[in-house]
Amino acid sequence: MSAKLIDGKKIAAEIEAELKLKVSKMDKAPRLSVVQVGEDPASTSYIKAKSNAAERVGIELTHHHLSDDISKSDLEKLVVDLNKTEDGVIIQLPLPDGLDEVLDLIQPENDVDGFHSVNLGNIVQGKSGMKPCTPAGIVEMLYRSGNDPKGKHVVIVGRSTIVGKPLALLLSQKGVDATVTVCHSRTPDIGRHCLEADILVAAVGYPDTITSSMVKPGAVVIDVGVNRTENGLVGDTSSDVKEVAGQLTPVPGGVGPMTVVMLMSNVVDAALKTG
Ligand code: GUN
């Protein structure tokens, strides 16, 4: 049997249509600035996807593409200035060494990536606020594909600050009510935990990390991996997982479009708050 694919592109398009309608009723277009430092090709391709989505929704996106020898103080000044004029500001990662601290200068209310410690802290406390786009996109995708996580055992493989950890918090929140296990590089026998999962999330960043023998028959598998290999773009799950899983997100076309549309959603929310 082959797993049913969860079409992230289609779900993202539905959300985009909802956002476009919201934006059409606003007095002015929401504004998003994307800061890129250097020439990372993956960053360039992510920004292209964000820029296309912004155009479809009606968000005014400005791409600030800076040389990788920019000084920290010049980058800081740009971010401080953008805080004053934009609804949302993101700095595309990875940043060259020594510049990561600049991320903290994005004001929490403009932090549409949801990376600021204030926004992450709000999630810990179950408060409303900007949610990081990939975890928020995964939760939305589960609901919209008919996979309410309530009462389900979700196993997340990967404990990154932008995916694994915040996703665990969102899913275990009151009202969402999943039971969550987080596995990581130091977890002995990861497969044993994965086999227990009703919903298995692979967020590791290495191809073929999750194989069919680690998946419970019929489980929902969410593949967050974006790995550029000589065979093209692949996720973290091996190709035989589709023989065992009940449902599976494709790469590309699964979580990726959900991340982009949740960014758009955060920008619209930020604009609605400031009026
Ligand atoms: N690099 C890879 N994914 C992301 C993302 O979601 N936001 C930013 N700012 N950089 C990234």
Write the layout of secondary structure elements.
Blueprint: E1 4-5, H1 8-24, E2 31-37, H2 41-57, E3 60-66, H3 72-85, E4 88-91, H4 117-124, H5 133-144, E5 153-157, H6 164-172, E6 179-183, H7 190-194, E7 199-202, E8 220-223, E9 227-229, E10 232-234, E11 247-248, H8 255-274
Parallel strand pairs: 1-11, 2-3, 2-4, 5-6, 5-7, 7-8, 8-11
Antiparallel strand pairs: 9-10
Helix pairs in contact: 1-8, 2-8, 5-6, 5-8
What this model shows, in words?
With 275 residues, the protein is α/β, with parallel strands linked by helices. It has two domains: 28-108, 3-Layer(aba) Sandwich (Rossmann fold), CATH 3.40.50; 132-256, NAD(P)-binding Rossmann-like Domain (Rossmann fold). The chain is 37% helix and 17% strand. It contains eight helices and eleven strands. The protein has helices at residues 8-24, 41-57, 72-85, 117-124, 133-144, 164-172, 190-194, 255-274; strands at 4-5, 31-37, 60-66, 88-91, 153-157, 179-183, 199-202, 220-223, 227-229, 232-234, 247-248. The strands form three sheets. A six-stranded parallel β-sheet has the order 1-11-8-7-5-6. Strands 3-2-4 form a three-stranded parallel β-sheet, sandwiched between helices. Helix 2 packs across helix 8 (255-274). It is globular. The protein binds guanine.
